[in-house]
């Protein structure tokens, strides 16, 4: 090779101040023997170009012979893509949107959810990524997004085919994951999409019970507000206090967790009394 490998990484840095000249230099670098698979440290040049979100740099590499199949795990490039335009260019170049079935890694959808890259996720889903794929932790993208509180990611997944009740390997649904984090917005989106309000965790806890039992680092007032909001949303969506058949009632659980004077305890006790009233049983 008649070029200095490190020069290509210097060119990527130059792109931030003078993209036109950086493009000319990168073209020259390739013409003099440079290769997109050249490695500096632990990083291949093509990976550096993608990570830098330099679409034209990737175009230059493609024109000079790079093909995604040159990489042992080409899906990795889509995991590195920081933007929609970069993800779109990579899919056009035949980078696979789903992971290698032999290894299940790397998974572009999982990375897009974790890094909150909505535009990248949209590109992946519109180019054939499986919205219900099993992730490295055994869960699915919607469960992962719900757990992280990524409300826009949740909406995107639901809009493009994610199963609203598809959970992780231990049976926790996306709704239960959102409730465990006291995430009101994600809970609302999932309920609007038809999430099963009577689903139970592997330990038998219903959505109503998870609302009361989940620990949180939130300030008490904020936590109380969220618990009441979620509890009422669940009741309005059809969750039944009567079908929660554990020995300790929900009202007793609330009293044990928060004390008798807590607004959560008082509200849950009131809802329980209403559910037990003769009027409610005849409705």
Question: What are the key terms here?
Answer:
mainly alpha; 2 domains; 2 strands; Serine Threonine Protein Phosphatase 5, Tetratricopeptide repeat; 283 residues; ANK repeat; 17 helices; two-stranded antiparallel ribbon
How would you describe this protein?
The structure is a single chain. By secondary structure, the protein is an all-alpha fold. The protein has 2 domains: 1-13 and 45-96, no CATH class; 128-277, Serine Threonine Protein Phosphatase 5, Tetratricopeptide repeat, CATH 1.25.40.20. It is built from 17 helices and 2 strands. It has a two-stranded antiparallel sheet with strand order 1-2. β1 and β2 (43-44) form a beta hairpin. α9 (141-148) packs parallel to α11 (174-180) and α12 packs parallel to α14. Pfam families: Ank_2. ANK repeats lie at residues 137-169, 170-202. It comes from Chitiniphilus eburneus. Keywords: ANK repeat, Repeat.
Helix count?
17
Helix content percent band: 40-55%
Largest sheet: 2 strands, antiparallel
Strand order of the largest sheet: 1-2
User: Please, what is the average pLDDT?
Assistant: 93
Short characterization:
Keywords: ANK repeat, Repeat. The chain is 54% helix and 1% strand. The chain has 283 residues and is mostly helical.
What is the element layout, followed by pairings?
Layout: H1 5-14, H2 19-31, E1 39-40, E2 43-44, H3 45-51, H4 55-63, H5 76-80, H6 84-92, H7 108-114, H8 118-126, H9 141-148, H10 151-159, H11 174-180, H12 184-192, H13 207-213, H14 220-236, H15 250-258, H16 263-276, H17 278-281
Antiparallel strand pairs: 1-2
